[in-house]
Design a protein that fits this description.
Elements (H helix, E strand, L loop, with lengths): L7 H11 L24 H10 L5 H14 L4 H7 L5 H28 L12 H8 L3 H13 L1 H7 L3 H19 L12 H11 L8 H11 L2 H9 L3 H13 L6 H14 L5 H10 L4 H14 L5 H4 L8 E10 L2 H4 L7 E9 H12 L14 E2 L3 E2 L9 H17 L8
Antiparallel strand pairs: 1-2, 3-4
Helix pairs in contact: 1-8, 1-9, 2-3, 4-5, 5-7, 7-10, 8-9, 10-11, 10-13, 11-14, 12-13, 13-14, 14-15, 14-16, 15-16, 16-19
Length: 419
Amino acid sequence: MASSPLSIGSALALLLVTSTAFSFSSSAATDFAVGEPQAPPDPAKISELVQKLGSGSYRARETATRALARIGVPAKVELLKALESSDAEVRYRARLILSEVLELDFKVRLEAFIDDVHGKREHDLPGWQRFREQVGDGPVSRRLFADMVRSEPALLEAGELGGQYAGAAFEGRCQQIQEGMRVPGRQAERQVQVGTVAALLFVGGQNKVDISMPAAMSVTNFCYQQPFRQAIAGGDSAPVLKKLVGGWVRRDFASDSTAAYQTMMLALQFNVREGIEPALAMIKDGGGNPHMRQYALLVVGKFGSSDDIQRLEPLLSDQAICAQQQIAVPTEIAKEDPTNPKAMKNEMMETQIRDVALAVIIHLCGQKPADFGFQRVQPNSTVLFNTATLGFTSQEQRAAALNKWQQWRLANKVPPAQP
């Protein structure tokens, strides 16, 4: 059954993601040799050869295929156009040639990039200009980008198309990786390598690239795998990787609270300050469930400053419950006989959004929540505080903590939130 023609952009995205030949490997089996980049021949000749890909003569089709392959990169534009031909044979052969032409094109450009150790020349590798603007063009940045190109040349090429085309490539690549991770006996593919994760973060960090929630979740999961975690924790590329994560965290996920929550958790895990942007947006809009909003507050507490206090104070009236747990508390009997079975009793400690907000505000003022009545608070190096320890066992305790903060605020002239 003949497939329907595609637009140039969507066809290229599909080609780049699904082509097994386009992988910088020598395993692609073809019966023609692709020529090295050269001065473009007559455009009319290239167009004529492309038309012959659909000839009724098998010999003519084969001759045209080999001729276009020998021409190589200069034939790329016409071959891209051929991807939307109404003739299935033309589309098939154009795609076959393009997979090899694009691979050679990438190899040549990447070798030139790597050889230019000191960055004295301009390079047209896809995404390089935007990459160096985002993270810099020092030696570490260049090495990481070269790794990204080796790992994901197709994705980077498609990423330059933007919009739905880059989105189709992004979605397809995430799906490929996920499928590879599920194949029995292919343990190596279950660990996504740094170059691949970096490329996905870089391409997906653009707002113009359409990304579904499942694909976004996949990228988040890839970031938590060992290769990337180790690299961002202490390798020489850690600062560059953090900038890429920052770009991913800052992208607009169309007010999707789940995506915003995931990016905030990435920011907390990898100490990426850009996480404060989705956190403040969630706080302002009142989005997400209480579990998500508590972490938005913790992100602001970790990366924010006293300038953010006024944005948080409206949440001091938010009674949504974040956590509940039974705790043992001493009774009056404990003062006289600590060993008495009745010396302790169980009470419910409840953490509400307003409790987390108050603890974070106190922290942003340079004070310790424990000094304001948070008797069981436990600091956490990753998420600032363990939120389950920020609760109270009674409304009286909660009111007393808030009152102490209000007195401190007045005494230290901290301006209240504006209505």
